[in-house]
Design goal:
By secondary structure, the chain is α/β, with parallel strands linked by helices. It has 2 domains: 2-44 and 100-205, Ribosomal protein L4/L1 (Ribosomal Protein L4, Chain: A); 46-95, no CATH class. 32% of the residues lie in helices and 14% in strands. The chain has a 6-stranded mixed β-sheet. Helix 2 (29-42) packs across helix 3 and helix 4 packs across helix 5 (160-166). The longest helix has 17 residues, at 102-118. The chain is elongated. The chain starts with a strand and ends in a 7-residue tail after the last helix.
């Protein structure tokens, strides 16, 4: 697949070839869905905890006698139907982590990258470096590239000035290529990658020695 490379001014400077093994993979909905669910599940802390009636501090004595009161029968103050009582079937600390084969994780990344390329939602830039943090300058770059929606900017290595320039723009996020994930790609309409980030992605997920 051949795509244009843009300058910061939004002009096409040349065309480059993308690896078909990363940017021309048929979309596998089942694998992408599993990868997304796994990532979100692994992000959960699982620390929510409630007390059952056996764990609530308080007396177990019957509140009032069983008969001749004119009221419904009642047990102790630790009953789940009373304020301050235990919780019925409440959450307990648990591990939500899910496992997924390495090759399936790699396939999911390739699928979403290929989908962005097919849908014309991928922009490859010659380079993206700013001399100083400047939000206005970053907004101008996005406008020149025709980006009028949410965007994920991917670089080869973290660029401090770029991160500071983009963090105040709504719907814009920056990431280095090595921590790119399925959830990040799917969460943003446009995917902006520097040429070096594209080559890094091809090395990470396209070759026989690809790793996640």
């Amino acid at each position: 697949m051949e795509v244009p490379v843009y300058s910061l001014a939004g002009e096409v400077v040349r065309n480059i070839e993308l690896s078909d093994s990363v940017f021309a993979v048929p979309f596998n909905e089942a694998v992408v869905h599993q990868a997304l669910v796994r990532q979100r599940a692994n992000a959960r802390q699982g620390t929510a905890s409630t007390q059952t009636r056996a764990e609530v501090t308080g007396s177990t004595a019957k509140i009032f006698r069983q008969k001749h009161t004119g009221m419904a029968r009642a047990g102790s103050r630790k009953s789940p139907i009373r304020r301050g009582g235990g919780v019925t079937f409440g959450p307990k600390p648990r591990d939500y982590r899910q496992d997924m084969p390495k090759k399936m994780r790699q396939l999911a990344i390739r699928c979403v990258l290929s989908a962005k390329a097919r849908d014309k939602e991928l922009r490859v830039m010659e380079e993206l470096k700013l001399d100083q943090p400047k939000t206005k300058e970053m907004a101008g770059v996005l406008a020149a590239l025709g980006v009028d929606s949410s965007a994920l900017i991917v670089t080869d290595i973290p660029e401090e000035n770029l991160v500071k320039s983009a963090r105040n723009l709504a719907g814009v996020k920056t990431l280095p290529a090595n921590i790119l994930s399925v959830a990040d790609i799917l969460s943003y309409k446009m995917l902006l990658m520097t040429e070096s980030a594209v080559r890094r992605a091809e090395r990470l997920w396209g070759g026989s020695h690809a790793s996640v």
